[in-house]
Fold this protein.
Amino acid sequence: MMISEKMNAAFNDQIKAEMFSSNLYLSMVAYFEEIGLKGFANWMRIQVQEENAHAMGLFDYLLERDGKVTIEAIEKPENEWACALDCFEAVYKHEQHVTSLINGLVDVAEQEKDRAAISFLQWYIKEQVEEEASVGGVLATLKLIGDDKKALLMLDKDLAARTFVAPVIG
Ligand code: FEO
């Protein structure tokens, strides 16, 4: 089934949003490197790879549907945060925003009666639950840590262990 114009445009918007997420997290990699939290920086590097995979999943799907991929300009992300907690508050807020964008994309698929897209997007719905949970977990630990530098360095060590596993999308 040929993808509708409206659905096609909504997919391109989401590709752009995932690429923005990638750049936002890349900006956070630089921030954590600057303040010497290498484990946090590693965690963010993996997050960048995840976002690139999310963008490419939508990109490849749109091509598979004979849609027209358009790469749009991406806004400049923020590059300053007050501390690790402040940064992760921003990540959590951003992921909640992405969840609402994915829900909006599914709304368009439903309006367009595009059952194939509805089915494909279930992966992204589930992924957002995981994204919010993993970010929420780090955020909760940071709140517990407060001003305890030793505990912060222990968390940094934990986050250094994160590795990238390429997701199988769709
Ligand atoms: Fe692509 Fe973090 O959502």
In short: The radius of gyration is 17 Å.
